[in-house]
Task: structure prediction
Amino acid sequence: MSRGIELSERFYLAHGEPMLREQFPELCSLVAVGLLGSGSECFGYDDEISRDHDFEAGFCLILPDESLVDRKQEFALERAYAKLPREFEGVVRSPMNPVGGNRHGVIRLSELLKQKTGREDGVLTLRDWFFVPEQSLLELTNGRIFRDDLGALTSARERLSYFPEDVRRKKLAGKLLIAAQSGQYNYARCVRRGERAAAQLALFEFVQSIQHVIFLLNRRYLPYYKWSFRALRELPLLSDCASDLEFLISSANTSSEFARKQGIVEEIAEKITKELCAQNLSDRQDAELEAHAYAVNDRIANEAVRNLHILSAV
Result:
């Protein structure tokens, strides 16, 4: 089965590129074309199951501001896109939605940046980075760009490709603290009290926080939860934690399993702390995640960010 992103690129080359070249030659050097956004195909994760909704051989035509491409040209391009073949390689295109909501078609770069970052120019202050959802940043920078002669979209994607270092460290500090409290402290206490549901919730908190820590250590945005384990297994650093993390949240909390799971929590903590030291984020030699959380926070360069509450970025 062909991946959606490859299908979309073939559709563009077969029908979109000729449409632009023949009907809008003056726009060829101004329009960026590609596939990016919220669909599983934009991450390369689409399969037979994901084709049950919002799947088509579509692509995005991303326009610069009106000084370069005016509204009349935009409307003409929208009509031309709507007239492209309704079916390609056996895949039927979704009908155009007159009130918005389509993932493909014509969109202004300023509107895309506003939607994903809150700012039409996509230029974020250090403070802004704390309020933009990580998933939105990932959706803006994923997928594949088929052409961008002007370079405006590519430049914005490169600028937003990952958090500034101080923001990364603040997020790391917060997630490490939550992982410490949930996995290294509260899990055991809940089990000993016979609160097995609460114990499992503690492990969920630990696993979610550690997943985020691993992505932060890899300098990669964390995807939507249903893709997080798949993406985790593909990371260059600490991907070997995936199976243990999966076991922690998919097994019971009997006495024998508790001992094993508590051991796994500490093994994962040790792996994490070794990588923190390798990246010069901490110099502590123990595996106490809470202590490492504060060590990471202390190494934030910007004083204002460093002095924010340690959980302010989570």
User: Anything to note?
Assistant: The beta strands are 32-35, 60-63, 87-88, 91-92, 105-108, 144-147. The radius of gyration is 23 Å. The mean pLDDT is 92.
